[in-house]
Amino acid sequence: SPKHQLVFAATNSGHVLIWKVNLLDANPIKLVSMSKPHSEMILRINVSPDESYFSTSSKDGTSKIWNIPD
Q1: Among 3, 2, 1, 58, which residue's Cα sits nearest to residue 35?
Q2: CB neighbour burial string for 5-16, b if at least 16 within 10 angstroms, e if fewer
Q3: Do 58 and 38 form a contact (C-beta atoms < 8 A)?
Q4: What is the pTM of this model?
Q5: Where residue 2 falls among pLDDT bands split at 50, 70, 90?
Q6: How far is CA 59 from each of CA 6, 39, 40, rounded to the nearest angstrom?
Q7: CA distance 5 to 23
Q8: SS (H, E, C) the chain
């Protein structure tokens, strides 16, 4: 996510992790969010064109929409 300098990751167990990257900071990579919104593997993460929200889709048959943290 270029606007927010975020990196998104998903796990086979249904977790979503978000890191903020700032290479000018003493600690350049910080975990800003970790949640378990799904009961099974996350298949896809999509970021909106304006980078205000993202969605997740899972093997459990659900999709969820999230606000991107500041």
Answers
A1: 58
A2: ebebebeeebeb
A3: yes
A4: 0.78
A5: low
A6: 24, 8, 6
A7: 10
A8: CCCCCEEEEECCCCCEEEEEECCCCCCCEEEEEEECCCCCCEEEEEECCCCCEEEEEECCCCEEEEECCC
Alpha carbon separation from 13 to 8, 19, 41, 51 (Å, rounded): 15, 18, 5, 25
Amino acid at 41: M
> Dihedral of CA 46/67/37/61: which sign?
negative
Q: Which residue has the tokens 């929409």?
A: 65
Which residue, 4, 10, 20, is CA-closest to 63?
10
Q: What is the pLDDT of residues 34-68, one digit of tens each?
A: 888 888 999 999 999 888 899 999 999 999 999 98
